[in-house]
């Protein structure tokens, strides 16, 4: 279907009107009935690189409001949320809402040096900020008992071995002994990875002090020097924030279409604290935002809902909150969910969630196989090879799977390595990460492959238009209880590792 320029101009002007009288509302209803039924061809035609990049530039500007990040609850993230809702409200095609709730934010980084020589170190979740330059004092045994901390540790940096008891207990005991800071070194040669103090505070034991971890190899060098009689000075710097932040999902549902058969599409609006997140997941968020702003040119048979999720990077927090807050009768109205998380990776692959389980033996709810085939057929029509990616639930589609809602979506790769075969299919560099800036500061405008982004955006438009017209092939079965949600049962620390994870298969 080809849309005339005059029709598009009139429809856009109508959709963006700022206010309407009762008679205008009636006229709007008449005009809505005159709109063409949404089609894949029509919606794809409206997808352009220029509009996608224009939104991306805005997202990057928002990140600059909070030192280069759009982590949830930051000024950059709040500006992103406001931008999305303002644009959607202006169309007057949607009923929109902000779903606002509190969630714990904890992020930081640590550096450590000994006598001005840098030692690789890592921050512990919940560890407090601080700057300490002081003598390093080894702690006896494993630092799991107050008696392990000698009197001379007061005002110094307690040097503690990993082992037996929790990291948080060791740090609280160091605080109780009036140490200025602490270093926990691994009891193995390698570094401590993914360390956490386990809880925001332990007042029953003692106050937390600034802390970092180092490898066992680094610790051995330090301990050998101290044993030989050296007095070593450590410089520990920790930049960290642990606080409860209020944050919001943006939910937008078309005023038209069958509300008992909702086609749902989503992506997450937040970045990791380390960077602006223009690919992860600015690309997916912008894809569905751009589609949502074009959809008012059409009418739909089935209602379309867009979910712009917060705090995905902290463990699918926004999508899980939405699903677990949803009354059972409302969950039943959602026919399917489409997820778009990282769809413009620079060394991209065209990956589709493995809804039928044929590649990874993880099958989605009935209908997920149909969604996978819808995407496969799209790429075949463009003479492009696609490949499956694991349907593990480690992105915002996960909470929907847990309640039996069929789902699917697209992904262009994160920290995994592109294979030689994939390089033949799609170009790019074999043996290199799909996204070399994944979860890093460099995830900016230069980290986008616009060719892949445009094609994936057209694929998203195709899927939304297809199901907004008809749900043929999608069974409308009874949904499961929200009590089955996997992510909701995880601890804060465990769920931090339950986001943006995708295993891929190329053959």
TrEMBL record:
CDD domains: M28_SGAP_like, PA_ScAPY_like. Residues 249-457 form the Peptidase M28 domain. The keyword Transferase does not apply. One of its GO terms (molecular function) is aminopeptidase activity. It is found in: Secreted. InterPro entries: M28_fam (IPR045175), M28_SGAP-like (IPR041756), PA_dom_sf (IPR046450), PA_domain (IPR003137), Peptidase_M28 (IPR007484). Keywords: Aminopeptidase, Glycoprotein, Hydrolase, Metal-binding, Metalloprotease, Protease, Secreted, Signal, Zinc. GO terms for cellular component: extracellular region. Residues 1-22 form the signal peptide. Its cofactor is Zn(2+). The keyword Signal applies. Gene3D superfamilies: 3.50.30.30, Zn peptidases (3.40.630.10). One of its GO terms (biological process) is proteolysis. Its main location: secreted. Its EC number is 3.4.-.-. Transmembrane segments: none annotated. Residues 133-222 form the PA domain. Monomer. Belongs to the peptidase M28 family. M28A subfamily. This is Peptide hydrolase. The lineage of its organism: Eukaryota, Fungi, Dikarya, Basidiomycota, Agaricomycotina.
């Amino acid at each position: 279907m080809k849309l005339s320029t005059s029709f598009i101009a009139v429809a856009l002007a109508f959709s963006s009107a700022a206010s309407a009288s009762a008679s205008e509302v009636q006229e709007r209803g008449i005009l809505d009935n005159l709109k063409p039924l949404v089609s894949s061809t029509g919606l794809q035609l409206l997808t352009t690189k220029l509009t996608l990049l224009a939104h991306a530039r805005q997202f990057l500007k928002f990140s600059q409001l909070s030192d280069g990040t759009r982590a949830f609850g930051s000024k950059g993230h709040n500006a992103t949320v406001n931008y999305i809702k303002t644009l959607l409200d202006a169309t007057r095609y949607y009923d929109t809402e902000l779903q606002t709730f509190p969630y714990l934010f904890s992020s930081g980084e640590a550096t450590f040096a000994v006598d001005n020589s840098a030692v690789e170190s890592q921050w512990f979740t919940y560890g407090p900020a601080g700057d300490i330059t002081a003598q390093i004092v080894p702690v006896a045994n494993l630092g799991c008992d107050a008696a392990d901390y000698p009197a001379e540790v007061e005002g110094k940096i307690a040097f503690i071995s990993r082992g037996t008891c929790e990291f948080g207990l060791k740090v609280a005991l160091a605080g109780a002994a009036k140490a200025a800071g602490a270093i926990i070194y691994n009891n193995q040669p390698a570094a401590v990875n993914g360390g956490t103090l386990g809880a925001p505070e332990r007042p029953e034991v003692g106050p937390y002090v600034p802390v970092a971890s180092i490898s066992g190899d680094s610790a051995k060098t330090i301990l050998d020097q101290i044993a030989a009689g050296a007095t070593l000075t450590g410089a520990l710097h920790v930049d960290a924030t642990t606080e409860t932040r209020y944050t919001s999902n943006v939910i937008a549902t078309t005023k038209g279409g069958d509300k008992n058969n909702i086609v749902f599409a989503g992506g997450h609006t937040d970045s990791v604290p380390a960077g602006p997140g223009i690919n992860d997941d600015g690309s997916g968020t912008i894809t569905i935002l751009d589609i949502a702003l074009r959809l008012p040119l059409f009418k739909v048979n089935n209602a379309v809902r867009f979910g712009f999720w917060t705090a995905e990077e902290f463990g699918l927090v926004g999508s899980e909150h939405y699903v677990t807050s949803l009354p059972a009768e409302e969950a039943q109205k959602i026919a399917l969910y489409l997820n778009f998380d990282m769809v413009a990776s620079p060394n991209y692959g065209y990956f589709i969630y493995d809804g039928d389980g044929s590649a990874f033996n993880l099958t989605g709810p009935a209908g997920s196989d149909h969604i996978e085939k819808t995407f496969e057929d799209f790429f075949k029509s463009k003479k492009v090879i696609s490949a499956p990616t694991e349907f593990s639930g480690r992105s915002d589609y996960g909470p929907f799977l847990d309640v039996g809602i069929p789902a699917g979506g697209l992904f262009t790769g994160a920290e995994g390595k592109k294979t030689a075969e994939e390089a033949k299919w799609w170009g790019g560099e074999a043996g290199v990460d799909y996204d070399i800036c994944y979860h890093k500061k460099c995830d900016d405008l230069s980290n986008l492959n616009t060719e892949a982004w445009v094609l994936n955006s057209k694929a998203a438009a195709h899927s939304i238009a297809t199901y907004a017209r008809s749900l043929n092939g999608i069974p409308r079965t009874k949904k499961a209880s929200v009590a089955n949600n996997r992510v909701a049962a995880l601890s804060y620390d465990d769920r931090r590792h339950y986001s943006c994870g995708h295993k891929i298969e190329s053959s």
